[in-house]
Each structure stands twice: as structure tokens, then as C-alpha cells.
Design goal:
The structure holds three protein chains of three kinds. By secondary structure, chain B is α/β, with parallel strands linked by helices. Chain B has five helices and five strands. Chain B has a single domain, classed as Rossmann fold. Chain C folds into four domains: about 425 residues, Sodium/glucose cotransporter; about 70 residues, no CATH class; about 110 residues, Helix Hairpins (Orthogonal Bundle), CATH 1.10.287.130; about 160 residues, Histidine kinase-like ATPase, C-terminal domain (Heat Shock Protein 90, 2-Layer Sandwich). Classes of the chains: A mainly alpha, B alpha/beta, C mainly alpha.
């Protein structure tokens, strides 16, 4: 895992907090009502494209974040439990 | 030949008493009141038989004069009695090292000075 | 057409495969080679146990009935997982640190390791999960029935119930068996079930694969691609008006809660977690899985509506669509997918619930009833295992009963949502517990109880449509006709979707009572402690809690207990490890508070925090310290800190003092050297006059024939030198006194001119004898000064004497002048002598300096030094004026005031 500088890590943490919040609001009325028009995108209804498109985007961003989020104090992760198999 | 004694001493009273003492023995006394004058007289002119050298001379340290005397071939063998108010062991040693023949501390006993001169003059 | 036998054999083969995978997983885990089980991918796949037959079958059904609503069930968890850093991570961390074995354990542990709370949570969990298990049974039985229905065309009506019930029973029994075999082999120290996790991961892959296969088939084989599918008439199911309403929001919210609060989800996400890195990958991989599972739901729904006859059960489209075109392989695959999804849910859920039951219900009872005293009976572990096995059977039995009792026409999705709403009651206590230190057990209990009762009343019981507790009329019109208390329209909140309605009342009341209860009741010390540990889990290191709990027990007693619960080997390992950590040899550590806390946590990993605590408490004495004790300790700590601050201050002071001493020592050494110098100087100065005195005395004594003038002369020299010596000794003493501040000073106001004139007069004699002239510049100004007249005179005499004595010029002259400038009285004494050599000028005021080329009648000795000191004491100065080329000039200054005219007259002369 590439170690990030503390301020970058902090920015990621802030962004990581916003991500689900933003996702939640984008899925609520009134935002989602914007996409209820009976329009098709390459044959797929707009609302379907919107929901699944947004979903994919959230996953992609989460993937991008997942390796960049670090503990502020230790910059390390909790070590695996000692009484687990393979040890 | 009369024995000649050269005294380098800046205190006039001490010089006077020494001159009297040595004069009484029938010796010839020449003197200088400071170091430069003393060196001058010793380097030029006739050599005395014994030198009494006070360490605390104005402008020049008596040890330095002694060194110069010992450095010059003319005065190397010249018998020197070092006279000083400081009588510590290290001064005695320094004097010895540089080449003094005798060491007398002030206040001195008259007999002691006379005896030393007599000895060094080979009398 | 698939025959029942084929179905049966395939199922059996599949189950055998699962068994094998589970067996291998367990064995590898035991031998330490199972790192693949801990891989983040396997972890994520095990979390996808969330997708049960509700997803596999019921999502399509929900899509048909309610359009896009099905997506909410997966969007909620997506949001929770992509925000893993904040909530899930904290839960996982707490789970590790406190060895949490279940959601009941978490809540109970947080609120002071409360047994009653654990029992309440367990009961709610069991009751809440029962419908969910029933739903799986229903799905599987229906799927079997659909496949083996005699008339392939008659897929419209669900077949009759009795064979279904029988089938369901056997399926339930089979699941129970599998779970018992693989979920309860041993009591893992941390409640990990490696074999089961492996099997679940495989099932996750199977169901994903199956659903995608069917989806692809529908989109590209039955239709001409996505555009074609959505162009069908049936796409009207996407009625988007009124779609995104309160129910949409509520469902998204609810599913987000469920992904944490469902006991099986908690089990796989938190309890089975072995590291944060697993969560890191799951944060995006699990939402991806959900996305893939949901991708083809709409196409399949539309396809089913288009192709299959009117009135077909939409929950079964996943099966019936391939069946309608005789794609037997696909049908079998789909069946296996559905079967996988159902069995994985049941297995994990029953493990999770049985753990809770054994840890939080059976163990506490066992602890309380005398005939199952732990000391006497053998392994506690055996008791746990047995109770777990029985619980599993019990749970599946309940599920079966619910299946029998519940309405036949209920959509799968609806049942699931009832379960969701039930476990959602954990949310306030859970979230509050990990973010709010003030949350108390009382608040949690009140909230949970109220929420559960309301859930039961508004959602759970009505789902039986009058067959359980609530009669149909009560559901319709309220108890005893009280419309206000209608289960589905409480307090006049009519017209709401029943789920939203129930959710609102139960969660609102739950939260309000939770907050109120927490604020009203004081938390007990242990609650407070746990609260801090949980909320600050990212800051507090593990094991700190022992500082607040004072307990004592013997190591042997602790070992016996540990053996009973952890087993001999594990217990020995734990003890030995800790002893090593303490630096002791041998197998037994010192039973310190830290060790007892450590052991308690280890035990909690097996039997839950509350029971571990109860068992430890039986053999240790001492308790959590009361608030008073805590405050006393806090005071002591504060005192200790104060003390250590004092000590630090003192040591700094000590350092400063040491520094001072060093400096003083340096000064003393210097002074010592100076003293040595001084003494050697004095010795020299004394010896010089002594030499003359001695020498001339000897001459006078020895010489008989001295002339009278000569004798006179010599005697006068002796006399002179004695005087010189005396003077020197006086000066030395004077200097010494002045240095020590003990000299006598007679300060008063006087006219400065007076001592000046007196000094001049007293030097006239000396001047005459040497032929020098003292010239006084008249007029000499008068001025008042504050001085000691004798001392001032001494200074002037000293300078005059020097000037006279050292003046070797033919016509020696000493000039004295005085003036008053700027409140300073200045006296200048200059001579026309040889002057002081420039290299000696800086040193003339030093003691025993030779100032002149010839030191005829005695050196300057201390004179100038004393004079300078005197002037300093009088507040004035004595300085050598450095700008003369000829002779020497000294300047004396004193602070002065102008004397009024008449006084001037009086004093002068």
C-alpha cells in the first residue's frame, strides 16, 4: 500500500465520508425524480441507466478510495488476529 | 689581577650594599640598573669574573638575559649568580637549567654572597 | 423435463460438495494452511450470504409487483459498505478488541456486560429471524414443486401444500444436520467457523453464476439484447411515478440497517473478520456483487411477464423462464442457485443464533442453577456444544412452524422485510453504543423492548392474518374496536404503507426511549468504562480497562476455569504466553488485574462477554470500582502528576544550583590563583626592602671601621627601607579592608578644594627635597562634594608623591588644577616627567605595577590601586589621561554641586 502523506490521507477520509452521504442523496427524491422521464439511453430506460450507472460509479470510487484510506495515528491497519488459522 | 664583579640590580640601595660588600673584599665592582644596559656592558668591554644577576629587572627578565649570555660563545662560560626575591624551587630549577652557577634569594646573608663570588671566581 | 430423482440426486451431490469443501476448510484451518479462507475475496463472498433466495427468486417477484423497488434492498448495503471507514471499521475493531461473538454479545458487552440485555437481544433476533428462515424453506419447496409439477404448462398456480410441508420439513432437517456438523465441531476460541465460511463462499459463487446465466439467457437468447427487453410492453412495470416515495427511502434505509443488524450478517462481517484489510476490499467488492446480482432482475421480470402465461408466480420466473423453453441444464443450474442461496442463509443464521442462545441464555441459566455448577461438571465447552446443537434444531423448528403458519400467498419479499424491521430495532442501541458514551443499559433495554413490542404489534403479528394472537378483527379495527390502536394505523397514522408505518413507530419509540432512558439513568461504572472503550476504540489500546477493575484470584483457580472453557491446550497456551510476557518462567503468570482482564476477554471469545464476566466474577474477589473509587484514583493520579511536576521543578532547581556552584567554584579557583599571585607579589615587594635592611644591618654589625658618614648613611637607608616596608604593609591591609568593605569611611559634605590644598601642603616637604616644584592653578574652585576628606587627601598625596618621585627631568614640575564642569569636580595633576610607557598604561592601576622605568625609591606598589578604589567608593573616578606626550597626567573626578558664594568665602583659605 502506498503510504500517503497525512494531509492527503485526511482528504481521503473526508471524501470517504461524503461518498455514502452523496450516494444516499442522489438516490432520494427530488434528485432521483429528475431521471424518471420516459427516455431511453441506448434502449435502456433513463431511470434504470441512472440507478445502475450511479451504483457502478459509487463502486468504482469506493474501489479507488479503498487503498488510500489510512489511520491518522498509525498509518497502519489493525494486524490480523493472532489466533486465526494459517499462523 | 683584581677580580671583577658585575652586578645587574635595579634597586639602588641593594646595589649600594652589594658594592660595599664586594668592594671591601678588594674586588672591582661594575654595575647596571637595567637589563639592556647590562647586556651591553657584558657583550662589549672587558668580561668580568663573576656576574650577579637580579631576575626582576625592568624591561627584561633576568632569565632571558642569562639565556642570551649562555647563547653567546663569549659569555657562555661566564659564572653567573642569580639573585631573586622569589625563592621557589621551580625558579631555582629554571635557573639551573638555563645555566646559572649559583642561586641566592633576597634577603641574602652578606657572607653567603661573598663566599659564592669567591668560589666562582676561583679564589 | 426434469425428474424429481434428478433434482434429488443433484441436490445431494451438491450438498456433498459443500460438505467436502467445509471439511477441507476446517482441516486446513486446523493445520494452519488455510490462509485462503482469510483472503478478502472469500470474506466478501461470505458476506454475500445477504443474498438469499429472497434475492434469487424474490427480487424478480418484487420487480414484477413493485418495479424498481427491489433495488433498495441492495442500494442500502452498498451505501453502508462504501462508507466502511466510519461505521463498519469501528464495529470490526470493537469486535476484535473485545472478542465479540455475536450482535447480542456486542450490545450486552457495551452496556456493562449485561446478561439481561443479551437475553433480550437474543430473543428479538430469534423471533425476527424465524420468518426469514421460513422464507428460505418456502422458496426451496416452491422451486422444487415448480420443477416437478406434472403439467409443465401449468405453472400458474402454486401446487398444494401438504407435500410442500413435508418437503419443507425434510429440507429443514437436512439443513439442521449440515449446520450441526459444520457449525458446532468445536468451540473456536473466537467463534470462527472456517469450514462453513469456505462452503458459504462457494455457494455465493454458485448463486451468482446461476443468476447471471439465467439473466444472460433471457436477454440474449430469449430476446435481442437489453434494448429489445426494455422495449417490451411489460417494461411498464417500471412505473416511475410515485416510485420514489417514503417507502423507497424507508426500504433503502432499512436494508442499510439490516446489513449490519441481521445476526448472520453480523456473524460474517464482524465475528468472522480477521483483519481490516478484508473490509477494505469488501467495501467495493461486495457492492459489486450486489450490482451483478441485481443486473438481470429487471430483464428476467420483463421477460417473464412477456413470455409466461398470465398469473404465473413471478417469484419463480428465474426457474420457469428456462423451463418454458426446455433449457434443462439452465433449470438445474437455477435450481442449484436458489438452493445455494437458501441453504447458505439458513446455515449462517442458525449458527449465529445458536451461538447467541448458548452464550446468552443457556450459559447464564447454567451459572445460576446449582446442579449444573461449573466446578463440578466437566467441560463447560461440552455444555456449550450441546446447547448449540439443540438450539440449531430449535431454530429450524421455529422456522418450519412459521412456514406452516404464515400466509400462503405472501410474497417472499414481504416476509423478508418483516425480519428486516425486526432486527432494525437493534440500531439505536448499537449505533448509540458505539458513538455515545452516555448511553446506558437502561436506555437500551427500554428502547429495545418498546421497539420490539411495537414491531410485533404493527408488523409481525398482523402478518399471520389473524392466526396468531391478534385476531383478524383486531387487525382490522384495533383491539376492542379502538380505532386509535389499530395495528397498522396507530394513533391515527393512516394511509401509510404498513412497513413504513411499523418502521416509523417502532424505531421512533425505540430511539426516544433509548435516548431518554440513557439520560435519565446513571450508567454504572462498568457501563461507563465499556462505553469509553467502545466509543474510543481507535484511541484506547486494548487491555486498558484493567486499570479500573481491581480483582484478585489465584492463578490455579483461573486456570481451572480456563481449561473448562478453552480446553486444556488453549488454556495452557494462554497462561504460558502471559507468563512470558510478565517475564516469568514457568506456566503460571501472576494473577494481576491485567491478566484477569486478558483472560476474561479470551473467555468472552467463547461464551460471550456477559457469561465470561459472570464466571470470572465467581472466582475472583473484588469488583469494578465504584464511582467514588474512580474519583479517588483520579485524585491520586492528579496528585501523582502534581508530585512529579514538583519533583521536576526541584530537579531543575537543583541543576540551576549545581550550575551556580560550578561557577562559584570557578570563581574561587580564579580567586585562589589571584591570591597566590598576590601573595607572591607581596612576598617579592616585602623582600626587596628587607634585603637592604638585612644587608646594611649585617654590614653595620660586622664592619668595625666604618666612617661616621658611612654609618649614618647606612642607618638612614635601613630606616628608609623600614618605612617603606611599613607603608607597604599598611597599604596591603588598607586594600584588604577596602576590598572587604570594612574600611573606615567618614563621608560628609565638604568643599573639595580643602583636602586638595592640604594634600599639596603635605607634599611640599618631599617636593623640596627632590627639587621639584608644585604649581597650583589658581583660583581653585570650591564645590560641595560628598566625601571622606582624609581619603581624598590620601589619593591626591599618592598621586603627587608618584609624580614627584618619578620625575627625572632636570626641572621637575607638578601642576595641579581644578575645575567644575557639568556637576563634576575635576582635579588634574600633571607632571613633566618621563611619562608612563604606553605598553604599561593599561596596567598602572593594577596592584604592584611598576609604572616608571626606574623604580628608585620603591615601586608604585598598591598606591594607585588603592587610590582608584577610593575614588570608586566616593562615587568618582581616577583616570590616566592618555593624550600627553610629555609627562603624566591624572584626573580625579567627583560629583559636586556649586557652593554658594558666602560659603565659598568662609571655607577657602
Amino acid at each position: 500500500m502506498r503510504p500517503a502523506s497525512p494531509s492527503t490521507a485526511a482528504k481521503f477520509r473526508d471524501a470517504a465520508f461524503l461518498l455514502p452521504v452523496a450516494g444516499f442523496f442522489l438516490l432520494l427524491p427530488p434528485v432521483i425524480d429528475l431521471f424518471t422521464a420516459r427516455v431511453s439511453l441506448f434502449g435502456i430506460p433513463l431511470i434504470v441507466a441512472y440507478i445502475f450507472g450511479l451504483w457502478s460509479a459509487l463502486i468504482a470510487i469506493a474501489f479507488w478510495f479503498s487503498n488510500r484510506l489510512h489511520d491518522p495515528e498509525t498509518h497502519a491497519h489493525v494486524p490480523p488476529d493472532t489466533s486465526s488459522p494459517g499462523r | 689581577m683584581t677580580t671583577r664583579v658585575f652586578i645587574a640590580e635595579d634597586e639602588p640601595n641593594i646595589l649600594e650594599s652589594l658594592s660595599f660588600l664586594l668592594g671591601r673584599e678588594g674586588w672591582e665592582v661594575t654595575s647596571a640598573l637595567d637589563g639592556d644596559s647590562a647586556l651591553e656592558q657584558l657583550n662589549d668591554g672587558a668580561l668580568p669574573d663573576v656576574v650577579i644577576l637580579d631576575i626582576m629587572l625592568p624591561h627584561r627578565n633576568g632569565f632571558e638575559i642569562l639565556r642570551q649570555l649562555r647563547a653567546s660563545p663569549r659569555t657562555r662560560e661566564l659564572p653567573v649568580i642569580v639573585l631573586t626575591a622569589k625563592g621557589q624551587e621551580k625558579d631555582r630549577k629554571t635557573a639551573e637549567e638555563i645555566g646559572a652557577n649559583a642561586f641566592v634569594t633576597k634577603p641574602f646573608s652578606n657572607k653567603d654572597v661573598v663566599d659564592q663570588v669567591r668560589r666562582l671566581a676561583g679564589l | 423435463m426434469l425428474s424429481p430423482n434428478l433434482i434429488f440426486l443433484t441436490s445431494l451431490a451438491y450438498v456433498a460438495l459443500l460438505f467436502m469443501v467445509a471439511f477441507l476448510g476446517d482441516r486446513q484451518a486446523r493445520s494452519g494452511k488455510a490462509s485462503w479462507i482469510q483472503s478478502p475475496v472469500v470474506y466478501t463472498l461470505s458476506i454475500s450470504v445477504y443474498c438469499t433466495s429472497w434475492t434469487f427468486y424474490g427480487a424478480v417477484g418484487s420487480a414484477v409487483r413493485n418495479g424498481l423497488e427491489f433495488a433498495t434492498i441492495y442500494l442500502g448495503p452498498t451505501l453502508v459498505f462504501i462508507g466502511w471507514w466510519f461505521l463498519l471499521r469501528k464495529l470490526v475493531r470493537i469486535g476484535h478488541m473485545h472478542r465479540i461473538t455475536s450482535i447480542a454479545d456486542l450490545i450486552s458487552s457495551r452496556y456493562g456486560k449485561s446478561t439481561s440485555l443479551a437475553v433480550l437481544v437474543t430473543l428479538i433476533a430469534v423471533i425476527g429471524t424465524t420468518p426469514y428462515i421460513a422464507l428460505q424453506l418456502k422458496a426451496v419447496t416452491t422451486s422444487i414443486q415448480v420443477i416437478v409439477a406434472s403439467d409443465p404448462g401449468n405453472l400458474a398456480n402454486p401446487p398444494s401444500s401438504d407435500p410442500a410441508n413435508e418437503m419443507a420439513f425434510w429440507i429443514a432437517a437436512g439443513m439442521a444436520l449440515f449446520t450441526i456438523i459444520f457449525g458446532t465441531r468445536t468451540i473456536d476460541a473466537n467463534e470462527r467457523h472456517h469450514g462453513v465460511v469456505a462452503a458459504i463462499a462457494l455457494e455465493a459463487l454458485v448463486k451468482l453464476f446461476a443468476l447471471i446465466a439465467v439473466g444472460l439467457f433471457v436477454v440474449f437468447a430469449l430476446a435481442d439484447g437489453p434494448a429489445d427487453i426494455f422495449s417490451r410492453d411489460a417494461a411498464r412495470i417500471l412505473q416511475t411515478e410515485d416510485m420514489f416515495d417514503a417507502r423507497w427511502i424507508a426500504l433503502t434505509f432499512l436494508s442499510g440497517i439490516a446489513i449490519i443488524c441481521l445476526p448472520r450478517q453480523f456473524q460474517v462481517t464482524v465475528v468472522e473478520n480477521t483483519g481490516e484489510d478484508q473490509l477494505r476490499m469488501a467495501s467495493w467488492l461486495f457492492p459489486l456483487y450486489l450490482l451483478l446480482m441485481s443486473l438481470f432482475v429487471l430483464p428476467i421480470a420483463i421477460g417473464g411477464l412477456t413470455v409466461l402465461p398470465e398469473g404465473s408466480n413471478p417469484d419463480m420466473f428465474v426457474l420457469t423462464l428456462p423451463m418454458s423453453v426446455d433449457q434443462d441444464f439452465l433449470v438445474l443450474l437455477a435450481f442449484l442457485g436458489g438452493f445455494s442461496s437458501a441453504t447458505s442463509m439458513v446455515i449462517v443464521a442458525s449458527i449465529a443464533l445458536s451461538t447467541m442462545i448458548s452464550n446468552h441464555i443457556v450459559m447464564p441459566i447454567a451459572l445460576r442453577t446449582p446442579w449444573t455448577s461449573i466446578e463440578r461438571s466437566g467441560d463447560v465447552r461440552r455444555l456449550l456444544l450441546i446447547s448449540r446443537r439443540i438450539s440449531i434444531g430449535f431454530i429450524l423448528l421455529l422456522g418450519y412452524l412459521y412456514f406452516r403458519l404464515s400466509g400462503k400467498s405472501d410474497a417472499l419479499a414481504a416476509i423478508g422485510l418483516i425480519a428486516f424491521a425486526g432486527v432494525a430495532q437493534f440500531l439505536p442501541s448499537l449505533l448509540g453504543g458505539i458513538y455515545w458514551k452516555r448511553a446506558t443499559a437502561s436506555g437500551a433495554k427500554l428502547g429495545l423492548l418498546a421497539g420490539f413490542l411495537l414491531w410485533g404489534y404493527t408488523l409481525f403479528l398482523p402478518s399471520f392474518e389473524g392466526d396468531l394472537l391478534l385476531s383478524a378483527s383486531t387487525i382490522e379495527h384495533g383491539p376492542w374496536g379502538l380505532e386509535l390502536f389499530r395495528p397498522q394505523a396507530l394513533f391515527g397514522l393512516t394511509g401509510q404503507d404498513p412497513l413504513v408505518h411499523a418502521l416509523f413507530w417502532s424505531l421512533a419509540t425505540n430511539t426516544v426511549l433509548f435516548i431518554g432512558g440513557s439520560l435519565l439513568f446513571e450508567p454504572k461504572p462498568l457501563e461507563r468504562l465499556q462505553g469509553t472503550l467502545f466509543v474510543d476504540v481507535f484511541r484506547t489500546p486494548a487491555g486498558d480497562e484493567h486499570r479500573f477493575i481491581q480483582r484478585s484470584a489465584s492463578a490455579e483457580d483461573l486456570f481451572i476455569l480456563a481449561q473448562r472453557i478453552l480446553g486444556s491446550n488453549e488454556a495452557q497456551r494462554v497462561f504460558r504466553e502471559f507468563a512470558e510476557g510478565q517475564g516469568l518462567e514457568g506456566d503460571f503468570p501472576q494473577p494481576t488485574d491485567a491478566f484477569i482482564a486478558h483472560l476474561e476477554r479470551r473467555l468472552a471469545g467463547s461464551i460471550g462477554a456477559a457469561s465470561a464476566r459472570a464466571m470470572i466474577s465467581r472466582i475472583v474477589s473484588g469488583e469494578t470500582i465504584s464511582l467514588d473509587e474512580l474519583m479517588r484514583i483520579a485524585d491520586e493520579t492528579a496528585q501523582l502528576m502534581e508530585y512529579s511536576q514538583e519533583v521536576e521543578k526541584k530537579s531543575l532547581e537543583l541543576e540551576a544550583t549545581a550550575r551556580e556552584l560550578r561557577r562559584a567554584n570557578q570563581r574561587l579557583t580564579l580567586l585562589d590563583a589571584q591570591k597566590d599571585d598576590f601573595l607572591s607579589q607581596v612576598s617579592h615587594e616585602v623582600r626587596t626592602p628587607m634585603t637592604s635592611i638585612r644587608s646594611f644591618s649585617e654590614i653595620l654589625l660586622e664592619t668595625r671601621d666604618l666612617s661616621s658618614p658611612q654609618s649614618q648613611r647606612f642607618l638612614s637607608i635601613i630606616h628608609e627601607e623600614s618605612l617603606r616596608l611599613t607603608r607597604l604593609l599598611d597599604e596591603i591591609l588598607d586594600m584588604n579592608l577596602m576590598d572587604r568593605g570594612e574600611a573606615s569611611w567618614n563621608l560628609h559634605e565638604l568643599d573639595a578644594a580643602v583636602p586638595l590644598i592640604r594634600a599639596i601642603e603635605s607634599c611640599r616637604g618631599l617636593a623640596q627635597s627632590t627639587g621639584s616644584a608644585i604649581l597650583l592653578d589658581e583660583p581653585l574652585p570650591s564645590a560641595l562634594v560628598d566625601a571622606d576628606p582624609d581619603r581624598l587627601q590620601q589619593v591626591v598625596i599618592n598621586i603627587l608623591t608618584n609624580a614627584i618621585k618619578h620625575n627625572t627631568s632636570p626641572k621637575p614640575e607638578v601642576r595641579v588644577s581644578g575645575k567644575l564642569i557639568n556637576d563634576q569636580y575635576e582635579i588634574e595633576i600633571s607632571d613633566n616627567g618621563p611619562g608612563i610607557p604606553s605598553h604599561l598604561r593599561p596596567f598602572i592601576f593594577e596592584k604592584f605595577q611598576r609604572g616608571a622605568a626606574q623604580s628608585s625609591t620603591g615601586g608604585i606598589g598598591l598606591g594607585l590601586a588603592i587610590s582608584k578604589e577610593i575614588m570608586k567608593r566616593l562615587g568618582g573616578t581616577l583616570a590616566l589621561i592618555d593624550d600627553r606626550r610629555i609627562g603624566t597626567c591624572f584626573r580625579i573626578t567627583l560629583p559636586a554641586k556649586r557652593v554658594p558664594p558666602q560659603q565659598q568665602e568662609r571655607e577657602a583659605g
